[in-house]
Design a protein that fits this description.
Length: 230
C-alpha cells in the first residue's frame, strides 16, 4: 500500500511524508519517508486496526540504523491516541505533493531491506547494503540473513558495479554456508531509497544473471544511517 502521514505535534517537531508498506492480519507496517525541520528521514512505523480505527505501535529499534524494529512480536500499541476513521469528505480533495525519486550521489550511503514470512513466501529475510558511489563507480558490501521452514543461514559479500541514470548495475560476489557465488543485480532509485529489480535468475558462465524477458518484483531498500559499527 501507499499513503500519507501528517503529524502535527504541539510544542515539538511535526512531520509530513509518505507511507509505503504492507497490510495483513490487521497490522499496517510501513516505511515512513518524512520531512521534519527541513530534514528528510526514513523510519519504520507500525499500526494495528481496532474496529474502524488504527492505533500506533512502539518497540525497540535496531542498533545498526536506529530506524527499524528489532522484534515485531514485541510491539506495544498505544490505545490512548487512536487514529480515528473519518468520512471521505474529510479527506484532502487531492493528495499532497509526493517526493520525487531521490538522486543517487557521490559518497557513502546505506540501505536496509526487511521481509516477513508469508504463506506464499515463507522466508523472513533482512539485508543491509553499505555502498560508496564515486562518479559512475559503485563499490560496497551486502550482508543478509534468511530464515524459513527448511533453512536458516547468513551471507556476506562485496558489490562492484556502475551507476547510470539513477540505476546501479553490479556484480554481487557472496559466500553462503561456505559456498561462493556471484549474481548480477539491478537497483533503481526510489522515493525512500533504492529498489532491486528481482528478475528470475539464469546461470551464465558461472554467474546468476537476471532473465530480462520475464516479469520482475520490486524489493524496496530504505535509506538508513551508516554508523561506524556497520
Amino acid at each position: 500500500f501507499e499513503g500519507y502521514l501528517d503529524i502535527k505535534n504541539s510544542e515539538k517537531d511535526s512531520s509530513f511524508g509518505i507511507l509505503e508498506g504492507t497490510y495483513k492480519n490487521e497490522i499496517l507496517l510501513a516505511d515512513y519517508t518524512f520531512l521534519s525541520e527541513e530534514t528528510m528521514s526514513v523510519n519504520q512505523v507500525i499500526f494495528k486496526k481496532i474496529g474502524n480505527n488504527f492505533i500506533r505501535g512502539y518497540g525497540n529499534r535496531d542498533d545498526a540504523t536506529g530506524t527499524r524494529f528489532v522484534d515485531l512480536s514485541k510491539i506495544t500499541y498505544d490505545s490512548s491516541v487512536p487514529y480515528i476513521k473519518v468520512s471521505e469528505n474529510e479527506c484532502p480533495a487531492s493528495p499532497p505533493v509526493v517526493q520525487p525519486n531521490i538522486t543517487l550521489k557521490d559518497g557513502r550511503q546505506c540501505y536496509a531491506f526487511s521481509h516477513e514470512a508469508t504463506s506464499t513466501e515463507p522466508y523472513t529475510s533482512n539485508e543491509f547494503l553499505d555502498i560508496n558511489i564515486s562518479g559512475t563507480k559503485v563499490t560496497g558490501t551486502k550482508n543478509g540473513t534468511q530464515k524459513g521452514p527448511d533453512l536458516t543461514n547468513g551471507y556476506t559479500g562485496t558489490i562492484v558495479g556502475t551507476l547510470k541514470e539513477n540505476t546501479i548495475t553490479d556484480i554481487y560476489s557472496y559466500v553462503v554456508e561456505g559456498s561462493a557465488g556471484k549474481e548480477k543485480e539491478i537497483y533503481q532509485a526510489s522515493k525512500t531509497g533504492i529498489e532491486k529489480l528481482r528478475y528470475p535468475l539464469v546461470e551464465e558462465k558461472g554467474i546468476l544473471v537476471p532473465d530480462l524477458t520475464k516479469p520482475y518484483q520490486n524489493l524496496s531498500y530504505s535509506r538508513v544511517g551508516c554508523t561506524s559499527s556497520n
